[in-house]
Amino acid sequence: MKWLRPPSKCTLWKLDSESREGLAWLRKSPGKPSARAALAHIERLGTIRDLGLPPDIGRNVRQNRLLRIAREGAYSAVYQIQEYETERRHATLVAILIDTAATLTDVRTPRGRD
Length: 114
Known about the structure:
Layout: H1 6-15, H2 23-27, H3 35-50, H4 63-75, H5 78-82, H6 86-105
């Protein structure tokens, strides 16, 4: 993914882990509404924003395609995503991050052509 800066690629590799700030943690449901859940939402969103992905990432991809990739990644276990080819893994992680950020902020903006 030539449009990702090297630090972003390195950070995406960290998401493959089962650590607190790994992909499984980002995808985890916060549970019932509470102050603690709101703080968890803010922390997850902050983690995604700290990755430093370009703001226009995914803009040239049809939204249906982006959502399909994100959905596929959501149904896959972290260890399965780790086994994807590099390009597919990065695309899946980015799609998951875009979808997760939109879910956390309750905002769906058009990312591309439909």
